[in-house]
Amino acid sequence: MNQDKLYKVTEGDINTSTEREQWNSKQTHAATQLLLEKDARYFLHQSMSTPCLDVLGNCEGPYIENLEGKKYLDFHGNSVHQVGFSNPLLVERLTEQLQKLTFSTRRFTNELAVTFAEKLASLTPGDLNRVLLTPNGSSAVGIALKLARVVTGKFKVMSFWDSFHGASIDAISAGGEAVFRKNLGPLLPGVERVPPPVTYRGIFEGNENKCLEYIEYVFEKEHDIGAFIAETVRNTDVQIPSANFWKQVREFCDKYKALLIFDEIPIALGRTGKMFAFEHYDVTPDILCLGKGLGGGIFPQAAIVTRDKYNRFGAISLGHYTHEKSPLGSLAALTTIEVIEKEGLLKKVVEDGKYMEERLLCLKEKYNCIGDVRGIGLLWGIELVKDRKTKEKAFEEVEKIMYQCLDKGLSFKISSGNVIQLCPALTINRVELNTALTILEENIATI
Ligand SMILES: Cc1ncc(COP(=O)(O)O)c(C=O)c1O
């Protein structure tokens, strides 16, 4: 598949399209040009990264800023910016901590890591109170997959096609996106992928129950699946299963003795209006994976939280990552959670979510190129189509809109080739939110 076709099926916009070339050719700032060239000269090129768009000099609140001082409202943010970039309290606390304990050598612990684990245990329901810390989301997913194997004695995993659970070899084995797996096999054996519960289009169009039937069919036929891994709410193209969906999957997992792993790496910590997305459903996972914004957008920090009864494998190293009990990462996470709680961000996100819904549904009324609008809290997807009946994806149009918006100071990503994904800092104020939506509307109107 050539690069231009590949972007139609990836979770982010690609960096080798004609639109990207045109965007880059407009860069006239000398220092920016030089750094973009050097970036392309020294970094290994890879999809969705190098070659890059622009060079950043600063980030603050909901904004990133380039070397020329141009600010972009960052509705992408790699999903790390729940409490805004360079959150002042976080910067102050981390700066202070740099004068104190900065690293925790293995075999020793520290108060910040212990307090952080205790806090996570207190936030999660029931017996979800055992924690393992790790620096990044992919390794949290790896730990979850290992734990499921030792708990169940079964190595097989069920996951969704098109899912993303990280870029390490175990995570891409469980994931279902071609751009991450192409030419990289053989991957982990025993991964059974099922089509996701997408109801706007595709084989389960209008009928989520068919997806449930499919899942149970695979559980029954395989009989030895040890884990089901999924994002509770799919982050990139914003797919939100019904309340019944996860209840049913939970029942299947219990019936077929598989662990339910919720990957909430990009969507926890208030993004959906609750601390964890699974709180929207009457369901508790066996393992919860957290990451990204857990480190406040400053420090790489991830974690798994699991049931007390799985604390039986003290003789095996399930994690063993160097920066495991980082005092800085733990402080960053504790402060992030504190900001979410003290600033009432969950309530704010619910209100912002209602506002987003109103505005985006108005856009859908006005513009025929919008086929679907879906979202929750401050996570929204706008699916652009050439025709509402055929639902043909508007690949070229959405890319044009993205670069026009970048020009005007709004950054977001495109998912699945035609979905505008909107994911701002949760601290964004109404004026900024309004500015972003106005830029978006003005540019949708141009096509
Ligand atoms: C759903 C999901 N899981 C796992 C990961 C991997 O996290 P990390 O990049 O920190 O390894 C990501 C990152 O984008 C993600 O979106």
Question: What is the secondary structure topology, with strand pairs?
Answer:
Elements lengths: L2 H4 L11 H8 L4 H13 L13 E5 L2 E4 L4 E4 L13 H10 L13 H13 L4 E7 L2 H16 L3 E5 L8 H6 L3 H4 L9 E4 L13 H15 L2 E6 L12 H13 L3 E5 L23 E4 L11 E6 L19 H16 L2 H22 L3 E7 L2 E6 L10 H14 L1 E2 L1 E3 L3 E4 L7 H16 L2
Parallel strand pairs: 3-13, 5-6, 5-7, 7-8, 8-9
Antiparallel strand pairs: 1-2, 2-3, 4-10, 9-10, 11-12, 12-15, 14-15
Helix pairs in contact: 4-11, 5-11, 9-10, 13-14
The structure holds pyridoxal-5'-phosphate.
Describe the structure using short key phrases:
alpha/beta, binds pyridoxal-5'-phosphate, 14 helices, four-stranded mixed sheet, Aspartate Aminotransferase, domain 1, Aspartate Aminotransferase, domain 2, 447 residues, 15 strands
Q: What Rg is obtained from the alpha carbons, in whole angstroms?
A: 21 Å
What CATH first level of the largest domain would be assigned? Alpha Beta
Name the CATH homologous superfamily of the largest domain.
Answer: Type I PLP-dependent aspartate aminotransferase-like (Major domain)
Mean pLDDT: 95
Succession of helices and strands = HHHEEEHHEHEHHEHEHEEEHHEEHEEEH
Q: How would you characterize the overall build of this protein?
A:
By secondary structure, the protein is an alpha/beta fold. It folds into two domains: 3-86 and 347-445, Aspartate Aminotransferase, domain 1; 88-342, Type I PLP-dependent aspartate aminotransferase-like (Major domain) (Aspartate Aminotransferase, domain 2, 3-Layer(aba) Sandwich), CATH 3.40.640.10. Helices cover 38% and strands 16% of the residues. It has helices spanning 3-6, 18-25, 30-42, 88-97, 111-123, 137-152, 169-174, 178-181, 208-222, 243-255, 327-342, 345-366, 395-408, 430-445, and strands spanning 56-60, 63-66, 71-74, 128-134, 156-160, 191-194, 225-230, 259-263, 287-290, 302-307, 370-376, 379-384, 410-411, 413-415, 419-422. The strands form three sheets. Strands 4-10-9-8-7-5-6 form a seven-stranded mixed β-sheet, with helices on both faces. A four-stranded mixed β-sheet has the order 1-2-3-13. Strands 11-12-15-14 form a four-stranded antiparallel β-sheet, covered by helices on one side. Helix 5 (111-123) crosses helix 11. The protein is globular, with a radius of gyration of 21 Å. The structure holds pyridoxal-5'-phosphate. Pyridoxal-5'-phosphate binds at residues 136-138, 141, 164-166, 231, 235, 263, 265-266, 291-292, 302.
